Amino acid sequence: MAELEFEIEEPDTGTDPEADALVRESFAAVDTAVLTRLVEHAFNRMRVSQSTYLSIAIVNEREMERIHLEWMDLPGPTDVMSFPMDELTPGTDTEPATGMLGDIVLCPPVAARQGAEAGHSTLDELCLLTVHGILHCLGYDHGTAAEEAEMFGIQRSILEEFLGRPAPVETRR
């Protein structure tokens, strides 16, 4: 089993009942059992040892906006942020990568909106974002068309194998 740690913040609600309902529903869609199995699958697929450590923080929009501004100097909340630790790369069949992969930060309300826009569930979007974060921690990026094709191809393949159906549509920002 992967060395996985979840940290889940309380939903950030206010005075708008409709917005508050979306926030509560988005946090309720976080299924740590599914995400744990997905991480284990992605680790196997990318030849990362199950003893590799990964932290996943589930945060509200206010906290994600703070992190986004602090680390990327970009305003507003985003869907996922990744913080690699040991600069791991995918391993091989005989030598899986091991160490501290890093931290992934997910924002369920942003994921819920993106999933709805793309026509899939919040959990599907959280699965997509989790794999996306893992790949970033492994050194993949999507800054160029070639990098995006490689990263999104691997991401789609991992998700389709895990879900047993077509992968959710990627958000391109």
From TrEMBL:
InterPro entries: MetalPrtase_cat_dom_sf_prd, YbeY
GO cellular component: cytoplasm
UniProt keyword terms in alphabetical order: Cytoplasm, Endonuclease, Hydrolase, Metal-binding, Nuclease, Ribosome biogenesis, rRNA processing, Zinc
Binding site for Zn(2+): 132, 136, 142
Cofactor: binding details: Binds 1 zinc ion.
Enzyme class: hydrolase
SUPFAM superfamilies: Metalloproteases ('zincins'), catalytic domain
GO MF, one annotated term: metalloendopeptidase activity
GO annotation (BP), single: rRNA processing
Record Gene3D superfamilies: Metalloproteases ('zincins'), catalytic domain
The enzyme's E.C. designation: 3.1.-.-
Function: Single strand-specific metallo-endoribonuclease involved in late-stage 70S ribosome quality control and in maturation of the 3' terminus of the 16S rRNA.
HAMAP family found in the cross-reference section: Endoribonucl_YbeY (MF_00009)
The protein, known as: Endoribonuclease YbeY
Species the sequence originates in: Rothia aeria F0474
Gene encoding the protein: ybeY
